[in-house]
Write a structure and sequence with these properties.
The protein folds into 2 domains: 2-141, no CATH class; 155-275, no CATH class. The protein is 61% helix and 10% strand. It has helices spanning 24-31, 36-44, 47-60, 66-75, 85-92, 111-121, 123-154, 157-167, 175-194, 198-204, 218-236, 241-259, and strands at 2-6, 9-16, 19-23, 97-100, 106-110. Strands 1-2-3-5-4 form a 5-stranded antiparallel beta sheet. Helix 6 (111-121) packs antiparallel against helix 7. It is elongated and about 85 Å long.
């Protein structure tokens, strides 16, 4: 469950089978706090509403029952006709509306249907609802993207550190000395891909939190994951650090040229870093 605030009205959302559903009950409260169910029923009994719902279900629901739908459509517009969300769902097998009980109970609708209902309630409210919904989705995408990028960078981390431990760290080293070896090898990757060490990046970006990998894009992190794997292989083969750095830099340039528009992103060439021991 998540919430957005639209014109001082709190609106609840939840995900069902990777689709976004929004509370019609919360939206109806914007119009009439005490008669939300009546508003939803009045909207449902409208012929235009039923036609819209029927078309949506035909497009999205292979189990929709058209015969039962036609029965409702014939009655639409009659003074005696009434229809509740639960009746609509049970009779037609509809998936666009959902009735929920409990703490966050009420009538929910797929976002396509929700925006139609919001327009019936208030055009102004609909526009603000769409704006806030889009803001929430963008925020979720940014959060998800950050998680994916960070997790991607960690995929080969264990392989890399195991290779360092097995081939570069003598058993007599202290914990502090060991950490320096790990940091040194991390900087081999940083130099190969970003053209600078972690310390150099922090000195150049004193106001930034985290490290350069937190600000890398997805293609850079894909390349970084590959470099970790390759460096582990080169370490196991006994290649000196200077040789590994040069090879990894060439590989990074080649991979990033393939993965990105070369005119948009150009990796730093190895210069003074070639003398790294």
């Amino acid at each position: 469950m998540s919430k957005i605030n639209v014109l001082d009205q709190e609106i609840t959302l939840y995900s069902l089978k990777d689709e976004d559903y929004i509370s019609l009950t919360d939206i109806a409260r914007y119009k009439n706090q005490g008669h939300t169910d009546d508003l939803i029923r009045n909207w449902l009994r409208n012929r235009n509403t039923l036609e819209f719902l029927g078309i949506w279900e035909h497009l999205n629901n292979p189990d929709f029952k058209p015969v039962e739908f036609d029965g409702f459509k014939i009655q639409a517009g009659l003074n005696s006709f009434t229809l509740t969300p639960k009746q609509w769902i049970e009779k037609t097998g509809a998936i666009g509306l959902v009735s929920k009980a409990g703490r966050y109970g009420g009538t929910y609708a797929h976002k396509d249907i929700t925006f139609e209902f919001a327009s019936w309630i208030s055009v102004e409210f609909k526009l603000y609802l769409i704006k806030e919904f889009q803001r929430l989705k963008e925020e979720e995408r940014r959060t998800l993207g950050w998680d994916i990028r960070r997790n991607l960078a960690k995929i080969n981390y264990r392989i890399h550190t195991d290779a360092i431990q097995a081939h570069l760290i003598p058993t007599e080293l202290s914990a502090k000395q060991t950490s320096l070896v790990y940091a040194s090898e991390a900087d081999v990757l940083n130099l190969a891909l970003f053209g600078m060490t972690a310390v150099q990046w922090r000195d150049a970006n004193p106001g930034q939190k985290g490290n350069m990998r937190d600000y890398a894009d997805v293609t850079q992190l894909v390349c970084l994951s590959n470099l970790e794997n390759l460096n582990a292989l080169f370490i196991s083969e006994g290649a000196p650090q200077k040789t590994r750095l040069e090879r990894l830099n060439k590989i990074a340039i080649h991979q990033m040229t393939i993965l990105t528009d070369h005119t948009r992103m150009k990796l730093p060439e190895m210069g003074s870093t070639n003398g790294r021991k």
